[in-house]
Amino acid sequence: xxxxxxxxxxxxxxxxxxxxxxxxxxxxxxxxxxxxxxxxxxxxxxxxxxxxxxxxxxxxxxxxxxxxxxxxxxxxxxxxxxxxxxxxxxxxxxxxxxxxxxxxxxxxxxxxxxxxxxxxxxxxxxxxxxxxxxxxxxxxxxxxxxxxxxxxxxxxxxxxxxxxxxxxxxxxxxxxxxxxxxxxxxxxxxxxxxxxxxxxxxxxxxxxxxxxxxxxxxxxxxxxxxxxxxxxxxxxxxxxxxxxxxxxxxxxxxxxxxxxxxxxxxxxxxxxxxxxxxxxxxxxxxxxxxxxxxxxxxxxxxxxxxxxxxxxxxxxxxxxxxxxxxxxxxxxxxxxxxxxxxxxxxxxxxxxxxxxxxxxxxxxxxxxxxxxxxxxxxxxxxxxxxxxxxxxxxxxxxxxxxxxxxxxxxxxxxxxxxxxxxxxxxxxxxxxxxxxxxxxxxxxxxxxxxxxxxxxxxxxxxxxxxxxxxxxxxxxxxxxxxxxxxxxxxxxxxxxxxxxxxxxxxxxxxxxxxxxxxxxxxxxxxxxxxxxxxxxxxxxxxxxxxxxxxxxxxxxxxxxxxxxxxxxxxxxxxxxxxxxxxxxxxxxxxxxxxxxxxxxxxxxxxxxxxxxxxxxxxxxxxxxxxxxxxxxxxxxxxxxxxxxxxxxxxxxxxxxxxxxxxxxxxxxxxxxxxxxxxxxxxxxxxxxxxxxxxxxxxxxxxxxxxxxxxxxxxxxxxxxxxxxxxxxxxxxxxxxxxxxxxxxxxxxxxxxxxxxxxxxxxxxxxxxxxxxxxxxxxxxxxxxxxxxxxxxxxxxxxxxxxxxxxxxxxxxxxxxxxxxxxxxxxxxxxxxxxxxxxxxxxxxxxxxxxxxxxxxxxxxxxxxxxxxxxxxxxxxxxxxxxxxxxxxxxxxxxxxxxxxxxxxxxxxxxxxxxxxxxxxxxxxxxxxxxxxxxxxxxxxxxxxxxxxxxxxxxxxxxxxxxxxxxxxxxxxxxxxxxxxxxxxxxxxxxxxxxxxxxxxxxxxxxxxxxxxxxxxxxxxxxxxxxxxxxxxxxxxxxxxxxxxxxxxxxxxxxxxxxxxxxxxxxxxxxxxxxxxxxxxxxxxxxxxxxxxxxxxxxxxxxxxxxxxxxxxxxxxxxxxxxxxxxxxxxxxxxxxxxxxxxxxxxxxxxxxxxxxxxxxxxxxxxxxxxxxxxxxxxxx
Length: 1180
What we know:
Layout: H1 4-17, E1 23-24, H2 28-39, H3 43-66, E2 69-74, H4 87-92, E3 93-99, H5 103-113, E4 131-133, E5 159-163, H6 172-181, E6 191-197, E7 210-214, E8 218-222, H7 225-236, E9 239-240, H8 243-260, E10 262-264, E11 267-274, E12 277-282, H9 289-293, H10 309-312, E13 318-320, H11 325-338, E14 342-345, E15 359-362, E16 369-373, H12 379-383, E17 388-396, H13 401-410, E18 413-414, H14 425-429, H15 437-440, E19 447-454, E20 460-464, H16 481-491, E21 496-507, E22 510-519, H17 523-537, E23 545-553, E24 559-569, H18 577-585, E25 591-595, H19 605-608, E26 619-628, H20 634-645, E27 653-658, E28 680-689, H21 696-712, E29 718-719, H22 731-734, H23 742-752, E30 773-778, H24 785-799, E31 801-802, E32 805-806, E33 809-813, H25 816-826, H26 830-835, H27 837-857, H28 861-875, E34 880-886, H29 891-895, E35 903-910, H30 913-924, E36 946-947, E37 959-963, H31 970-980, H32 986-994, E38 997-999, E39 1007-1009, H33 1020-1030, E40 1041-1045, H34 1048-1060, E41 1064-1069, E42 1077-1082, H35 1086-1091, E43 1098-1103, E44 1113-1120, H36 1124-1136, ...
Parallel strand pairs: 2-3, 2-5, 3-4, 5-6, 13-15, 14-15, 30-34, 30-35, 33-34, 35-37, 40-41, 40-44, 44-45, 45-46
Antiparallel strand pairs: 1-9, 6-12, 7-12, 8-11, 10-11, 16-17, 17-21, 18-21, 19-20, 19-21, 22-24, 22-25, 23-24, 23-27, 26-28, 26-29, 27-28, 31-32, 36-37, 38-39, 41-43, 42-43
Helix pairs in contact: 1-8, 2-7, 7-8, 17-18, 17-20, 20-21, 24-31, 32-33, 33-34
């Protein structure tokens, strides 16, 4: 199956080779006919699955930040792709212009965007008539002189879109630069967006802001003369001027199409062509490469050996080769300044080490290797590392495996690395599966420290064990050092640019290497041999031995099973026992050799024994790897054999590397490499002759690799992340690449690389969407917390909808994690701990002691358990999460910053001592009367008392209190309907949508939310006032005063005070109120401290005796972030005016939990003040 690009070359070559006479461009009708064919059938799927979703993501960010955007589209055709966007995005487009050179298309486009009065425009919120210009987009012409609309040539736009309309524009860089000049400079975020056929968008040093590929696009056309006679000229771009000649050429073109197109069995009357697509976006920074290359040395791509065949075909914007750490810092800071991304070039084995129109950093200069003796103060740590030697190995990121092995072996030690000498740091840090893995673990398990440049700031960091002489000047330990070290041990290229890695080392062994090659007569013989190999050989080997298996076909097409057994030992002679075991199962070995660690590289069967050896450099390959257990099982074996039967080029094979042993000794969550429970790593390898790169032979091999990987995925224990890159086909594989560590990795990526500078590494999942509402259900034992939580779950799932779908809710006990760990440590029955209260009560003292001991060792354990519960719920797309089993004091203040995008509240369930005692006794006895989990009969009786006037009977200022003294679920349901469901009111989301985000204000890196903008929108102030009134959890008739501080509080408090008819108490900056007054010092608020260089403290004041000491006061403000402003207000009210803290309620429109304002207020003595917020927002 040829690409459309290959087809275009072939069609044009027919004319060039024959030196045919003049050609002419297609007429509008001819172009339209070809265009329609291209978009039919599978061709439309590229739009549906790639172009429209990508464009939607881009526009959504702009619409969210601006609400009104302007678009200029170049060459849209008869109908803009914008018409396929969602209604909210189309409504966000307030100005639209288009340049369309074809008259037929321009006319149709104008009718489409300005339909008759009976039909709504697809862009219904345009504030002026669209400008449709029938002309070409030229570098120096005024396109506005021709067409309709009111646009001007100097008009600026937020988005300029080329959707498959740059063909024929040369040089493309100049046209994009022309478009960049037309972006609106007044607001950041504007961009030029280009969709184009992949492989042909060469921009001569112009730098992408973002690039995404879609390699699986295809075009399918009917194989008949009429269709092909329209399709072929459209792809070629012309017809012949002479009519007779044109007929002859079209006949030849039909044969070219048939020769290059693929026929599928399901559609034998159709021709299929590959149509890979790419999206590239550009900002004003696209032309600023010179600023970087003036500071950092360059290297030509022709002077750099790149192993990966796909990467060799890419044209990067530039390859820089830093020679010092400062150069790397300059690269990162340049990327941050211009919102560009970077790739890192080490060993050159990944497809994404070099990408089109992206700057690549060649780390070759950082190739030093040092052996460092373990210091005395590290002796204790070293002794805990098993058989590790007394030497650390410090390896620069420009080294490869061969360099390290040669250097360390000379000193009598070794680092457990992978099997190929040319691989670089990317593979060490993302796994590293070698022949010592069963004995010493993966390469990433040997990592004890690293030096890296932060992708978030350009700061040099050192993490873990980095000897002092290898810490660069100015390097610092990051606050999240533990997380960073955890992350690079399995996901290492995603969080920063690694400068050097520190490994622990082991005594260098010798290896005995033995090979067997067995011919398999048929599929049944293959099943038997694989099963015997798995069960009788591999499972019985000691840790110092590993056995690899290969499935491949010889030159005659016959299936072969190759086996290589490696035995390592630091003492001689090497054992003969494992070899005799294999010989019994297979047959006598073909050859044996003893080698050192350097010689080991040449013993791989695929390098020397298969197909004459793949080590000659005359082949290219493509690999993906899945982890398998029980390869001798019928299902797995059948899939492996079926894979070999369907392989396209004859050189493709499967390589099974043995795992287990020390790999499984490391807990799945101890490092980012979370896939530990597997017997074999199955490397699916597509191979083809190098002279067929970028041909259908290569593409068919790649398709085979992905097809086999997807077939094996349901049977697998995980996927090897080191192979994965930005190809969309890797997304499904990446889901299983890190096991249960995915949420933690996603959060670490978000923190470590917030601007996505390293956007093209192994695709980590985006941080999961946290539940919209988190309810912490607290209370004493036997108050009925779990029972109430389950009742409230049923209320949410039964009565609530969101975006026209039912809400999802669940209840999870936070103590379950401790119970699991306790059971694993002590041997207690986990099922009974989780479900048998009597059994749990027997173990409660030991459980409590166990948890306390854990917290002493891991002070952050409560937060870890809480986040684990939240991420489990997020993985299930839960909207409302109820967390039980919590005994923390003031949990909202303590935990809300961990989930800044979720609304969190506490509901304290209480019951009388008599009720608790009765339930306790009922739960310890056999449940013979059909009682529920809380030990009550649950027959409806009088409603339970709902105490909302004593919201703070405990020091917890965020709790609702539900009195659960009655039987039945009626009271609990009523409580949920009246006091919990309102937190999901859709008006709250509408209110949040009115607070538009403003990027990089008042300083770069801050996403400002314009809370006061609510009052500037139609109906905004009324909506906010209504919500403040209705969501107040106390009684407005018992409130004496509404207090507010300028300026934000004045806006909302005034409207609310008028609505509820309660007087205002105005708090102003000192000097603005007449005496007598009382005043306190107020520190600058979060945003004010950024917006002004003046960070000096100020005083705020209110009139003395304005509020009596026994008054009930509600404080209204626009924002709670750091809490500094509200802290000053409360000091004024409580400390100066003498009002009791219990009589004060704070209500804010928007809360930013990440800044931990509640914690500050509690620490300053205001824990008894009740705090409410309408909306919670992440970020600034």
